[in-house]
Amino acid sequence: MIKLKSTESKDGYRLLLHFSDNTCGTYDFTPFIEAATEMTAPLSDPPFFSRYFIELGALAWPNGFDLSAESLHRRLQESGGLRNNAEAA
After folding, report:
1. For 3-51, what is each residue's pLDDT tens digit?
2. CA atoms of 13 and 49, how far apart (whole Å)
3. 16: how many CB neighbours lie within 10 A of its CB?
4. Rounded to the nearest 5 degrees, what angle is found at the Cα of 74, between the Cα atoms of 24 and 80?
5. 59: exposed, middle or buried (Cβ count in 10 Å: 0-12, 13-18, 19+)
């Protein structure tokens, strides 16, 4: 099971995600924000977006919105944005 180990803020609504399988990738959360659902609309506020945290290996926000590490890992892999941590150095 892949877990999220650490996260770093990048510009805009992008986060650099480090996974337990020694891979990482920068994910752009803009599509979630543009969807403006009840759970994702608060993310459009930059101070709220920056309150992300890791809970049980998943990415979460204080309003209860969360994304599993596996789904984020899969999305990055499918988009070609996943790389080995050594490549990121």
Report:
1. 999 999 999 999 999 999 999 999 999 999 999 999 999 999 999 999 9
2. 8
3. 14
4. 65
5. buried
